Structures are given as C-alpha cells and as structure tokens.
Amino acid sequence: MDELTLKALAKINLGLDVVRRREDGYHEVRMVMQTIHLYDSLKIQKIREPEIVIHTNLPYLPVNENNLVYKAAKLLREEFGIQEGVDVSLTKRIPVAAGMAGGSTDAAAMLYGMNQMFDLGLSRKELMNRGVKIGADVPYCIMRGTALAEGIGEKLSPLPPMVKCPVLIAKPGISVSTKFVYQNLKLDETTVHPDIDALISHIRKKNLEAICSDMGNLLETVTIPHYPVIAEIKEQMMKSGAKASMMSGSGPTVFGLFEDAQTAKRALREMKQSGLARQIYLTSIYNNRRQ
C-alpha cells in the first residue's frame, strides 16, 4: 500500500464537567464525547526519502514538529525503524483551535494510516496507547463514537451510540486559549456542575429530548463572559429551532442539535444571515466506531 486517503472526524462534547484541579496543574474532567460527520482529509503517500513532508490548505498551519500529524508519523517511524518517508496532504475543514479536536483527530488518522500503510500490526488499543503521548484527545479520536472521558481526558469508556440527529456547527471569528479558560475556571462549593450521569442515562435510553435538557459545559462559565458572541450564537440557534445549543470543549465553536433536517437547514440559512459566525457547517452524529 503506497497511498491512502483518510477522513479525520471532528468531535463535540455533549457534556463537559471539571471535577477538580490537581496539584500538577492539570484538571480532572468528566466529558461525554461524540464524533460528528465533519472531517479533515489526509492523503498519505510513501516516499523513498526518509523524511516527513506535510502540505496543507491553510498557510498559517505549521508543517514541522509543531504539527500533530508530523508528531504521529515521527513516533511510529522511530519506534518501528521505518526507512521510507511519507508525504501528507492535509485538507482542513474542521475549525482550528475551536474545541473540536481538529489537530488530535488528524494525528489519530495519521497513526491509523501509518499502521495500515507499513503493516505494523498494531491493534486499536495499541494505537490509542501511543496516541496519548501526542495529546489527551488522540486516543478518543482513534476510538470514535460516543464515549465517557475521565481523568485528563485519556480514560475512555465506550457508551451506546447517540441518537442520530442533524448538528449545526458555528464558529465565530475569534480564537480562545484553552489554557486561559482553565486558568480562569472557578471551582468551589457554589459551582453548578452538569449532571453527566443523567446525560449518560438519557443516551442509553435514546431520549433526545432528555439528552438536550441535561447537556452542559462548565467551561462556558469562563468563555461566555469574555466572548459574548458565543451566547449570541447559542441564542440564534435556539431561536431557529435547535433542541439544545452548547459550546464544544473550551470553545469558541457552538453546536446545535435538531430534531429534523428541515429545521436544521432553515437554521443554517438564518445563522449565515445573522453574520455571527465565520465558519458554519450542517452535519450529523456519527456512530460507527470503525476507521
């Protein structure tokens, strides 16, 4: 196999709670992760030269060791003593630095691709174990589907598939630093935490109405006061008929869940007309865990 084209799928958080701040500065979380049908494309080719070459459609993205795709390729080349190099064409569609694991899912696809292309024989679990060295979200992006993430996000428990429904994605023209959000997060006895266990129970029962009523993201308590446009996008989605609307990860991307395609398509048009978001996509829940 000398050439391979893969889809690297984005994620949203149906629920995100921060349990505590650890002494090492990391935060322990409980998150319900969900893959969606919005994806980047990776075209991977073997080359004779022993190097990693990355091309991308976004001129501001790094194409060296600072790119997670590069790190993933380097990790497996070094571990398995692979002599050939790889040439990767990365086409980005997932919003960058937006709380949707765009970089992590690209790295996950690269690990999967290297495993296939060079016949390394690694199981999904073995790929996930290597993925965590690149980033906390990478193991989940290899796993895909609906899952509970705990610890710093690396402890994963598969959940039954989420109800299939249309998903509207809207990212405003701002960037949010994850570090800033966590540094400014206040955790005390007055903190109102989302009910992750209730959310999981509703997912098991495939009750979209109840899922939507119990969705919550604790990081909104930091991000929305600093970036009011996030609240405006949520409000616009609800006005357009979303059953629920929430920020994904540390933001600034907002998603809305809809009961039917017709309402979602109308909401897409209205979101475009509002001028609140720079990147807008209508997609859907992804349930198949296979790559």
Explain what the structure shows.
The chain is α+β, with helices and mostly antiparallel strands. It has helices spanning 68-80, 102-117, 124-131, 138-143, 178-183, 196-204, 208-214, 220-226, 229-239, 261-274; strands at 3-21, 27-47, 52-56, 85-91, 146-150, 155-158, 166-171, 216-217, 244-247, 254-257, 279-284. Strands 1, 2, 3, 4, 5, 6 and 8 form a seven-stranded mixed β-sheet that branches. The longest helix has 16 residues, at 102-117. The protein is globular.
Give the topology.
Layout: E1 3-21, E2 27-47, E3 52-56, H1 68-80, E4 85-91, H2 102-117, H3 124-131, H4 138-143, E5 146-150, E6 155-158, E7 166-171, H5 178-183, H6 196-204, H7 208-214, E8 216-217, H8 220-226, H9 229-239, E9 244-247, E10 254-257, H10 261-274, E11 279-284
Parallel strand pairs: 1-8, 3-4
Antiparallel strand pairs: 1-2, 2-4, 2-5, 5-6, 7-10, 7-11, 9-10
Helix pairs in contact: 1-2, 2-3, 6-7
What is the structural class?
alpha+beta
Largest sheet: 7 strands, mixed
DSSP strand content: 25-35%
Q: How many beta strands in the DSSP annotation?
A: 11
Radius of gyration: 19 Å
| Average pLDDT reading | 95
End-to-end Cα distance? 17 Å
- Unreliable runs, pLDDT <50, ≥5 residues? none
Number of helices: 10
Order of helices and strands: EEEHEHHHEEEHHHEHHEEHE
Mass-distribution shape: globular
Helix content: 25-40%
